[in-house]
Amino acid sequence: MSWTDDVIQKVWEKGKEASPNDPKDWRKDECTAWMKRNEYGNRNSKYGWEIDHINPKGSDELSNLRPLQWENNNDKSDGRLKCNIVSNGNQNVVKN
């Protein structure tokens, strides 16, 4: 899916702020995994993130979109979030 810069920014702003980190650059997804703003769409970065449809069969409305660290987005199955990547301090780790 190709999103406009405006939609990407609005979805980014839905991520959880985690002080003392600058929310313009760093946020956490619903699984607590770190995401870096300029790593949008980057699957080669542990801080890369993507736009996820909360309800996969739902609309492209902002209310149905959220930011997810790319591996958490990739690991969704049957519309269920698994949270395999979580934060541990200032790092993302695989949940055991």
Automatic annotation (TrEMBL):
Keyword terms: Endonuclease, Hydrolase, Nuclease
Start and end residues of each stretch annotated as Disordered: 73-96
GO molecular function ontology, one term from the record: endonuclease activity
Name the UniProt record assigns to this protein: HNH endonuclease
InterPro entries: HNH_nuc
Organism: Leptospira andrefontaineae
Amino acid composition bias (Polar residues), ranges on this chain: 85-96
